[in-house]
Amino acid sequence: MHEMSLCESIISVVEQQAKLNNFTEVKMVCLEVGQFSGVEMEALRFSFDCVTRGTCAENAELKIIETEAQAWCLPCANTVRVTHRYDACPKCGSHQLQVSGGDELKIKELEVN
Amino acid sequence: MCGVCGCGEGEARIEGKSVHKHHHHHHGEDGHSHSHGDGHTHHHEPMAEHSHAPGLTQSRMVQIEQDILAKNNQYANANRHYFAEHGLLALNFVSSPGSGKTSLLVRTIDELKDTLRFAVVEGDQQTTNDADRIRQTGAPAIQINTGKGCHLDGHMVGHAVEGLELEDGGVLFIENVGNLVCPASFDLGEAHKVVILSVTEGDDKPAKYPDMFHAADLMLINKIDLLPHVDFDIQKCIEHARSVNRSIKVLQISATSGEGLEQFYQWIKLAREMALTGHPAQLKKQAEGNNNVSRAAG
Q1: Answer CATH for A3-112 from 3.40.190.80, 3.40.220.10, 2.60.40.10, 3.30.2320.80
Q2: B55 is a domain residue
Q3: What backbone phi and psi angles, to 5 degrees, belong to A35?
Q4: What strand order describes the sheet that includes B118-124?
Q5: What is the pLDDT of residues B181-211, one digit of tens each?
Q6: B50 domain-assigned
Q7: Which region among A97-111, B91-105, B273-287 has the lowest average model confidence (pLDDT)?
Q8: Which has the least CB within 10 A, A44, A94, A106, B169?
Q9: How large is the average pLDDT for residues B39-46?
Q10: How many domains does chain B have?
Q11: CB distance B246–A110 less than 8 Å?
Q12: pLDDT score, position B123
């Protein structure tokens, strides 16, 4: 359940932004979460609702853009889609893959009042 | 929430004391209320009425593009900087509960304490049992109780290290909370993550918990003295680990019988040499060595 601490980090960033950009209410929080970021989406949504209570992001909508994981296959020199870290290259079957995307864990934007 | 350090009123405790101890000022409600002075409210009263009318709320987008783990990574980098300054090798031990982490650390410290200086940060939800066990070896140890937390983070470790007597050129063991999921995401500033897997668990654990095995540099397969009694395929386990992390190093050990530990000690010594490269503590040691040689020659 490290999703709870992630949500606490999100709220701390949002509150920091509230001071910087002079807003008091957040309507939507948009995150980019990679497939390999180690985040369970359901747990993230659940924690978000708990953690935002009593903050400027209470009742805010949580929008999650899930990014697919990609890897570079050394033997066949292709960029391929993977769904697990232990996947083999779908083109040549090799395990010599270097994951090149899917670790993202970012707050992209906020919709505020 | 503190604006400088960032620590909230969390449940984490270091040896019974709140992590939230500060050497700096709090910017709490006082600072905030300044921005809502009388003049401010008067000026904006008409606008406020507008914004409450249905359909007229003027929402706007604020682009952030900020890494959610950025704050943890800042603390981790500060720790890493501190470790480098002091020529310390910091290792982050991760595993599921009951894999034998504490037993391994106790034995390692006992067998190497004549040549290396150790200190230990222990992470558990509750109790100081593990830190107490480490202290019996004579090495300084500090316990972090994470309360409901499932992992150590860079901030807790930074505060814990403040309370430890660390010697330049020493080795810091950080024993994470027993959990093969969450600690994978939190950098503590360590040089290496060491994942421990005991043969009483399944040999497919690296495939079941790929993030952790991907994040680790060394896998220790522990309790190999029990191999005759369990159904655990070492080769399969290594294959699973390699399929998620091609460069992971693997050692087979038993913290009870001592089998394979010599190789683990060798790895620690080499990693420590790397951490110490160019540090004054190493240069001093070299100079002493040279003096001894020249004295012997003279």
Answers
A1: 3.30.2320.80
A2: no
A3: -60, -30
A4: B17-18, B13-14, B141-145, B118-124, B171-175, B89-95, B192-198, B218-222, B249-252
A5: 989 989 999 999 999 999 999 999 999 999 9
A6: no
A7: B273-287
A8: A94
A9: 38
A10: 1
A11: no
A12: 94
Average pLDDT of B60-64?
Answer: 89
In this structure, is residue B207 part of a structural domain? yes
How far is A8 from A30, CA to CA, in rounded Å?
A: 15
Name residue A104's amino acid: E
B34 token code pair: 């300044």
Residue B88: domain span: 71-274
Question: With an 8 Å Cβ cutoff, is B63 touching chain A?
Answer: yes
Q: What is the CATH number of the domain that holds B206?
A: 3.40.50.300
Helices (H), A22-113: 41-52
Model pLDDT, residue B295: 62
The verdict on residue B290 lying in a domain is no
A89-103, B111-125, B161-175, B284-298: which has the minimum mean pLDDT? Answer: B284-298
Q: If interface means Cβ-Cβ distance under 8 Å, which residues of chain A face chain B?
A: 1-2, 5-6, 8-10, 12-13, 15-17, 19, 21, 23, 27, 31, 36-38, 84-86, 95-96, 105-113
| Cα atoms found within 13 Å of the Cα of residue B181, Cβ hemisphere only | 9
- Say if B53 is an interface residue toward chain A (CB within 8 Å): no
Q: What is the pLDDT of residue A84?
A: 87
